[in-house]
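ok new one. same drill as before - structure tokens go in, u give me an amino acid for every spot. 127 of them this time. try not to just spam alanines like last time pls lmao
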């Protein structure tokens, strides 16, 4: 398990990033405000996850906000995993994050694990 947090100061928003290895996949647990400060630690974890041989799931149920820089890292992670025949899914969703994804036109890229929204396969022809 890996855990990263940023300093809790007046200039930054607190966030928590934890990676838990499970039998079938790695779980990225995201909490707090995942803005620009979260992008570098998330990118470092994503690089390690790409080197593993497992699928990856996201739990952002405790996230207050997932900003554009963190989403960019997650989209790059997804692309790298898919290139290797693996997948990125959402294990635990969050209504405010989901709404942000809808407004940004990205909801099709982050599907809820299981059920009808199984794994991301909704792609436009414009890559």
């Amino acid at each position: 398990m890996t855990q990263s947090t940023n300093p809790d100061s007046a200039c930054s928003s607190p966030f928590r990033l934890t990676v838990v290895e499970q039998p079938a996949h790695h779980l990225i647990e995201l909490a707090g405000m995942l803005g620009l400060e979260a992008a570098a630690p998330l990118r470092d974890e994503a690089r390690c996850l790409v080197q593993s041989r497992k699928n990856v799931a996201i739990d952002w149920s405790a996230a207050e906000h997932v900003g554009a820089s963190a989403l960019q890292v997650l989209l790059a992670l997804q692309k790298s995993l898919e290139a290797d025949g693996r997948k990125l899914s959402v294990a635990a969703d969050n209504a405010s994050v989901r709404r942000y994804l809808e407004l940004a036109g990205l909801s099709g890229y982050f599907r809820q694990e299981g059920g009808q929204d199984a794994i991301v396969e909704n792609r436009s022809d414009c890559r």
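The domain at 2-117 is CATH 3.30.750.24 (Transcription Regulator spoIIAA). and btw The chain has three helices and five strands.
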